[in-house]
Write a structure and sequence with these properties.
The complex is a heterodimer. By secondary structure, chain A is of the alpha+beta class. In chain A, strand 2 and strand 3 form a beta hairpin. In chain A, helix 2 runs antiparallel to helix 3. The C terminus of chain A is likely disordered. Chain B is elongated, with a radius of gyration of 36 Å. The chains are: A alpha+beta, B mainly alpha. The interface between A and B is medium-sized, with 28 and 27 residues.
Chain lengths: 139, 276
Amino acid sequence: MDRPAPVKADVSLRVPAEGAYVSVLRTMTAGLAARLDFTVDDIEDLRIAVGEACALVLPVATPGGDLEAEFRLTPASLTVSVRVETASRADLDYESFAWQVLSTLTAEATAHAGDQRLEVTFSMDSSLALSDGRQGAGG
Amino acid sequence: MTLDGGSGPQGSDLGRGALPGRVDGAREQHAWLFGQFRDTTALEASRLAARDGLVALHLPLVEHCARRFRNRGEPFEDLVQVGTIGLIKSIDRFDLGRGVEFSTYATPTIIGEIKRYFRDKGWAIRVPRRLQELRMQIGATTAELTQVLGRSPTPRELAEAIGCSVEEIVEGIESSNAYSTLSLDATDDSGEDGGVSMLEVIGLDDDELEQIEIRESIKPLIEALPSREKQILLLRFFKNKTQSEIASEIGVSQMHVSRLLSRTLAQLRRSLHESS
C-alpha cells in the first residue's frame, strides 16, 4: 500500500482508554498523514492535535472503557474523531488549554457530548495542497 | 596558506625547546611538528610537546567540524571535546608517507567521533543505528528541501530525495521522538508498554490556578468601589472583624453594614460574571 484510495477511505482504531495508548494513535495519525502528502510540519501539528484531543476526552472516560478513533481520509485532508464512553453526560471544557491548542492547530474542531459519550472531531488540510493551489507549482 | 619558503626547519636538528612559532606558515609548522613527533630518536618529552603542538594547531579544524553539529541539543564545548579525541587519534595514526593532506585524513575521524557521541550519549531511548543515521539524513534533507520548496517537505518528497521508502521516513520521524522524551504520553522506562505516562502523572490542574484569575479580575472591581464599601470589605475579609465591630468603627448600624456587605458582594459577583 503506497497510497490510500483517493475517493473515500475510513480507518478506525480502538484502543483502551488510557494515556499510554495515545502514542499509538499519534503514530497512526502520522502514518496516515504521511501517505496523504501532508508536510512534515503538518504531521507534527497533527500529532499534537491528536494528543490534545485525547487529553480532552480521556479524563472523563469510563475506567476500563475504549478509546475509539476514526480517520476519514480525502486526498489532501484528514478528519480525526476520538470518542470515549462516559459514565454520565460530560460537557467539554472549551476554556481548557487542550481545546485552545486543538482549535488553533486544526482547520476545524468540534466536540459532541452525548448522554454517555464524548467525541472530539477535528480536520486538517495538507499545507502542500494549500500552497500548491496558490502558487500552481509542483514539487 | 603559503608554501613559498620551501623547506622549513626539519627534524630534531633544531633541538627540543625550539619554538614552532619560528616557523612561518601553518603548513610548515605542521610538517615540522610531525617530523618532531615521529622522530624516534628524539626525547620522549619533545615528542609529546610536538604532539601537543599538533593538537593545538589543528583545533580550529575540530571546531569547524563541531560547528556542523550545533543546534542539535548538545553543548558546542562537549562536541569540541569529543572531536578533539578524534583529532588526537588521527595525529597518532596519520601516515606521512601516504601523501594525503592531514585535514583530509583527520576530518572523517573527527566527525566520526562526534557522530558516535551523538549515537551513544545523545539519545534518551536506544534506537537502532540505521534509524539514527536515517534521522540525521531526514533532518538535513528537511532543512534543504524547506529552503528549495519554501515550505516543509512531505514524507514522499523526503523519501525521493534520500532514496528510501515513505515507510522508512515515517519510521525515521517516529524515532526522532525518542531522541528527547518530552512527549506527554511518553512512558517511563519501567517497561515496554507498562510504563507510567506523563499524562497520568501530571493529573489535574491546580484549583489555585483559577483563583489567580478570579483574584486578578476582581482587583480592578474592588478598586472601583466607593470608599466606604471598600473599607467595609477590607475590615470584614482582610482584618476579620465582625459586622458589629465594623458598625461601631465606621459609625453605622450592624444591619446597615450587613446590607452594604451583601449588596457589595452581589455587585462584585455580577460584574465578575459580566466581565468573563
